[in-house]
Write a structure and sequence with these properties.
Length: about 575
């Protein structure tokens, strides 16, 4: 075993270039250096495109050989061994056994045609030599450790039968299956709710102590940095802007970019009209003059018109058990609520609580088992397909997983133009192109994004395209299902400001689904708490957070990262 404090991984002067299709060269990483000692957690933090994930892929030798190149002078050593000097067989033996990685997007990493138990068992059989029976038993134990409900049943489930958060938990289980010495975790808790986040972080911490496992933790969430890190490396545009102990970074950040990231996170004790963004700090002055002075009103007066009324909305699924038996699963047990014009209903709860199922049944993207959804005097659940099509423009949804919801054969421009053509938005193609470019700018993407395909964007950038696509139709009701969970804090603040501005300008109503309770409080007038398919509490946002009545709501609030909130308030 390695003594605590010994150097495990050393990265020196790492430079990575990508050759683009037009022959240009992108300097993705430019001279990055850091060390990861044994039994320590080093966190790479920064916005999308800062080079965090490219650095991790370079360490494991997983960069695409066709267009990526690690430049001469870059050195990566693991336990004194030069990783670039290893043969492909040696590197393959090292990956998974001693160095393991949790990738950012579980749906693109899990094989859709194999059960999660089979995929976990494959790792255990390959690296630990377990028998098929023992591998299955250990797979069930791992699923239980990472918080998958009913692991003996879910071990036979396929990836599409699990929620986004549950898919990520399976990926984490696969990564820790062999208890590696170094775990590289690339946004491992992005899709997870607060309580499961804590469970996963505690599990990783326990494994780190027991096996002297080190972690290279990659995230855009400074709340997690405060909870897990020993050392922090702040990156932007492929370079290191600041590094230091976590206490120093949070109490006395030296770089303006670090201070900006700390300030972008919504605070729990106030609701400014605008959240500050990175440019406000890097330009030397706040562009939004009333960031701290102006406060946005929250709540309902009582005389607002109701645009949506949902009554006893339910959804049941049937799963086959064996050859003849079927099991009924209640995903949604009868949700009832009203949505006021120009207001936001926040929906919180753990993965599997029924939040996304509620959104999909409301949109008729999956058939409801019962209930009523009144919109403009009509029950949407009773409309014929032709009648329902007329309402598609007026109610839109931003899906949780942008990788699965964007057509990989369309450019970003074509993705945004398609709904405008279908619904006759603007007078001609030139006007539509102009509107698309304006929307790309509003969600923080450059003009060049118009001609790029989804695979050329980061996960956060793809989510921005998904949001822009919905905004092309200026809907009356917008359902945001974890719409900002994959975004870095500055872009998250930018999009939350944009959503607030659109609500003020057009009177749009939002159903805002998120596991981030700070974001939900900032956005919401009312909050609905869900658990196991049931609504357990509902009320004005300030009242729910200040005086939660239900034990489950208190549990969620208690799981919030306190050091992050204190840091945000200080910033």
């Amino acid at each position: 075993m390695i003594a605590n404090g010994d150097l495990l991984l050393s990265v020196r002067n790492l430079k990575v270039d990508f050759r683009l299709e037009d022959g240009a060269v992108l300097h993705a990483v430019n001279g990055v250096s850091f060390d990861v000692p044994a039994n320590q957690t080093v966190t790479l933090v920064g916005e999308s495109g800062s080079g965090k994930s490219v650095t991790a892929l370079a360490i494991l030798g997983l960069l695409p050989a066709a267009n990526a190149r690690v430049l001469p002078g870059s050195t990566i050593t693991y336990r004194g061994r030069d990783l670039h000097g290893l043969t492909p067989r040696e590197l393959t033996a090292l990956r998974g056994a001693e160095i393991s990685m949790v990738f950012q997007e579980p749906m693109s990493s899990l094989n859709p045609v194999f059960s999660v138990g089979f995929q976990l068992g494959e790792v255990l059989r390959k690296h630990l030599g377990l028998t098929k029976r023992r591998a299955r038993a250990r797979a069930i134990e791992l699923l239980d450790e990472v918080g998958i409900p009913d692991p003996r049943i879910r071990v036979d489930a396929y990836p599409h039968q699990l929620s986004g958060g549950q898919q990520q938990r399976v990926m984490i289980a696969m990564a820790i299956a062999c208890e590696p010495r170094l775990l590289i975790a690339d946004e491992p808790t992005t899709a997870l709710d607060i309580s499961i986040q804590n469970q996963i972080l505690m599990l990783l911490s326990e494994l780190k102590q027991r096996r002297q496992m080190a972690m290279l933790f990659i995230t855009h969430d400074l709340g997690l940095v405060a909870e897990v890190a020993d050392q922090v490396v702040v990156m932007r545009d492929g370079v290191v802007r600041e590094r230091g102990a976590v206490k120093q970074i949070f109490s006395a950040p030296q770089d303006a970019y670090t201070r900006a990231l700390l300030a972008c996170r919504p605070s729990m004790d106030r609701r400014p009209r605008y959240l500050p963004v990175v440019d406000d700090f890097l330009n030397g002055a706040n562009a939004n003059r009333d960031v701290h002075a102006s406060v946005r009103e929250r709540g309902l007066r009582g005389d607002e018109a109701m645009v949506l009324q949902v009554d006893a909305l339910s959804k049941h699924f049937q799963f086959r058990e064996g050859l003849l038996r079927k099991r009924d699963f209640k995903a949604l047990g009868g949700a009832s609520f009203k949505l006021a014009k120009g207001k936001t209903l926040g929906v919180v709860g753990e993965s599997g609580s029924g939040k996304t199922t509620m959104a999909l049944t409301l949109m008729r993207l999956t058939p409801a088992s019962g209930g009523m959804v009144l919109f403009d005097g009509r029950d949407l659940l009773q409309l014929s397909p032709d009648e329902a099509l007329r309402y598609k423009r007026r109610i839109q949804i931003v899906f949780q997983n942008p990788y699965a919801s964007l057509n990989p054969r369309f450019t970003a421009g074509e993705i945004l133009l398609e709904p405008m053509r279908i619904h006759g938005i603007a007078t001609d193609e030139t006007a539509r192109v102009g509107l698309v470019r304006e929307l790309l700018y509003k969600v923080g993407l450059p003009h060049s994004a118009f001609f790029k395909y989804p695979h050329e964007f980061s996960g956060g950038q793809r989510q921005r395209i998904a949001i822009a696509r919905c905004l092309t139709l200026k809907p009356e009701v917008l359902i945001c299902d974890e719409a900002v969970s994959a975004l870095d804090l500055s872009v998250q603040a930018q999009l939350l400001n944009l959503l607030q501005d659109l609500q003020d300008e057009f009177g749009m109503s939002y159903i805002f689904i998120s596991h981030d309770l700070a974001v939900v409080k900032y956005m919401s007038d009312e909050v609905m708490v869900m658990k196991d398919g049931e609504v357990v509490e509902m009320g004005y946002a300030d009242e729910i957070y200040a005086r939660p009545r239900h034990a489950y709501t208190r549990q969620l609030l208690a799981a919030m990262p306190r050091r992050a909130l204190a840091g945000s308030a200080t910033a």
